[in-house]
Amino acid sequence: MEVSRNAADDNARIAWVLFGSALFQGISFPTFRKVFTAIFVAYPGDRLWNFPLPAETALLRVAKAELGCIAWDNLEQLPGIFWSTGSFVRHHGPLADWLKQHTVRELWRDLGEIHFMGKKAHRPKALHALLRLLAP
Q: What is the model's pTM?
């Protein structure tokens, strides 16, 4: 949520919440924050979904610089999560409209399009974060 607050508009905020929700797996929260913030700084705002998209090696280099000697089993999934979140934004955007025009069941189904979003409890985590983001 902290990084998404720095995004320029609702579409970017929602997109970065989705990316973070899928990415935050198998890593401590402080380490996740460092990696997530570094990716946001390197590829801010709409770079998540607008072309040209960063190369796999560039994304991994940013993450590895923050991880240092910390092992993260899902590191190799990071580019796929980044790219699939971008594809999701291009397909469903503007995301504020997508949220308002769909039922929770439809949102749940759509979130499965993001790589690794279907693992464990990450769809409910994403929905909860999105609803908090839209709350007055």
A: 0.86
